[in-house]
Amino acid sequence: MKLAEELDGLPLALATAGAYLDQTARSFLDYLRLYKESWARLKETSPELSSYEDRTLYSTWQISFDNIKQRNSLSMNLLRLWAYFDNQDLWFELLQHGESDSPEWLRELTKDELSFDGAVRVLSNHGLVEVATPSQESTESKGYSIHGCVHSWTIHALNQKWDYDLARLAVKFVAAHVPGDKDIQPLLLQRRLLQHAARCSHMFSKSLVRDDELADDCHNLGYLYANQGKLVEAKQMYQRALQGYEKAWGPDHTSTLDTVNNLAVLYADQDKLIEAEQMYQRALQGYEKAWGPDHTSTLDTVNNLGNLYKYQGKLVEAEQMYQRALQGYEKAWGPDHTSTLDMVNNLGLLYADQGKLVEAEQMCQRALQGKEKAWGRDHTSTLDTVNNLAVLYVNQGKLVKAEQMCQRALQGKEKAWGRDHTSTLDTVNNLAVLYKNQGKLVEAEQMCQWALQGKEKAWGPDHTSTLDTVNNLANLYADQGKLVEAEQMYQRALQGYEKAWGPDHTSTLDTVNNLAVLYKNQGKLVEAEQMYQRALQGYEKAWGPDYTSTLSTVNNLANLYANQGKLVEAEQMYQRALQGYEKAISPDLISTYVPALTITFNLGLLFEREDDITTARTMFSEALRGYKQVFGPDHAKSETVRNKLCALNAMLKNKAPEEIEEHLEDVPT
Question: What is the C-alpha to C-alpha distance for residues 293 and 301, in angstroms, rounded to an integer?
Fold first, then answer.
């Protein structure tokens, strides 16, 4: 009773005292004496502790620690080391990356699982450690956790002086354990490491570790953050690595250039395209000087620069880069090497963007046949190309072939990776989009839900890949007329993108545009116009006035003006959008040709409303000719335009025109 009163009934303190008494032959009076001695020492060593509760808890833990120190030195040192990790989920394999100069006790602790588990068991028996609640499946050992208050005690009382050597060890353990893309379940392991990486980041930010000697580790942590969509943290780590490499090796060392290249990838993901290009050019020039123009590392950066140009819509420059990389790979590896075939695949996708669909299909088929020969029909690299060929068939309007390819890719990936692997989910997402285009909305929703649940499990609810599927599901709900559910999904995607990418990133703006379309359909025209204006200004700043995403929003804003009766402003917007598409148009490329036809149809509706029947008929005729060429004469779009032409003839006989709102089409981004 006296002991309980002395501990003020604090549950944590009572639990620790009970665990101690269970492990020793001490009496309650003995423990009370030890507690008062510990309290007195604590007042001398940690006078800043003003909280009675903290002093009580710290005193009980110190008594337990003194006993642990006598029973098992490995347990003692493990608890000291734990101060430099996160308090949650510390596991055996994480501590197995010791170097030759690691402390002897650490090598002894991690020589096998029996030694590690024995040390943890002593801590557990004293009530300081418990088995962590598993948050995801993992191929590695179960983890252990300590209460946040106990962790605070290890930091501020147990380790009264900051131990730079132990802090350095913790950083190196976490960084060395970062998995590569080809490791088993890399995403799950990455997520498991994140909380420890956050502890490392905190130590770097407070200068509690010397980052100039941990450049490799900073680079690995940057890679971890980048793969988990934490781009701000990734940039900070890559920049620390870069500074360390430049100081140790100089600006042109290949290790320095590797980090420069990774920073370029990161900037591209953030839509910082000028900075990305500068970094790629620096890496390329450095590799050319160090390795030569035809070295495969040089060619990898050439390919990355081609990807950047493709993303910017600089398709001529992108093709030059891809052709250089392809010729270099063919020379270095041969025409049938899988790295060469990856480049062939990239060039095929570029040809698709250029509207060269025959050449695109030839390249994708070459890549597919080569990979089938090298890897087999069911290899995941082969299936990636099958998936890309499916996307190409969608762009060609060959939806039956596209579905066959998607199904082949999906079945193969399910067999190789399982239902919830991110590569499988990418194909599930593509199949959802295909079903939506086919009007199979029930099947599309099933696929979207599958993809969303899988990505939330693999990446988490706020990862950008998860948000992409959230946005797709919102599009589907909008098509189904489920406007409340659609708005909820768009808002979730928008808030996530703003947090991950920032308010002006093009992925953010795509969702802004989609939300504007939804608001228009809900009759919230003021909110819709605000969203369209935000999207338009953002696209003009990011892409320029004539980029396809910019022009799509111009068309959508024209539709809104038409619905508001602002016909002059609507026509100006339609003409701007149509002229922009005509500059970039290819009759074989759905991504530019179909939007141009949509705008032509919308202009026909506008001229009809202005009683300019002759011009309206011309616009409808052009749209009908194009839709028949792309989709066939019996497609719903062709039928809609044909009906409008018939309606014009009726209108000439003084019949009332139909309302323009029934037919105006928005262009998705």
Answer: 11
Q: How far is CA 230 from the centre of its chain?
A: 8
Q: Where in the chain is the domain with CATH 1.25.40.10?
A: 556-662
Where does 556-662 sit in CATH, by number?
A: 1.25.40.10
Which pLDDT belongs to residue 634? 80
Residue 574 one-letter amino acid: Y
Alpha-carbon distance 620 to 602, whole Å? 9
CA distances from 202 to 85, 143, 319, 541, 588 (A): 11, 22, 43, 35, 53
Nearest to 123 by CA among 69, 197, 190, 184: 69
**Whether 503 contacts 512, CB under 8 Å:** no
Q: Could you tell me if 217 and 172 are in contact, meaning their C-beta atoms sit under 8 angstroms apart? A: yes
- pLDDT digit string (tens) for 82-138? 999 998 999 999 998 766 678 899 999 998 888 898 888 888 877 778 887 655 556
Q: Is the dihedral of CA 411, 412, 415, 416 positive or negative?
A: negative
> How far out from the chain centre does Cα 494 lie?
14
Least confident of 1-5, 327-331, 410-414: 1-5
* Cα-based torsion angle of the residue sequence 47, 48, 53, 59 in order, rounded to the nearest 10 degrees: -40
The encoded tokens of residue 173 equal 């353990």
Report the chain's terminal Cα–Cα distance, integer Å: 71
SS (H, E, C) 165-234: HHHHHHHHHHHHCCCCCCCCCHHHHHHHHHHHHHHHHHHHHCCCCCHHHCHHHHHHHHHHHHHCCCHHHH
10 Å CB burial of residue 645 (0-12, 13-18, 19+) is middle
Indicate the pTM of the whole model. 0.72
Average pLDDT over residues 34-50: 49
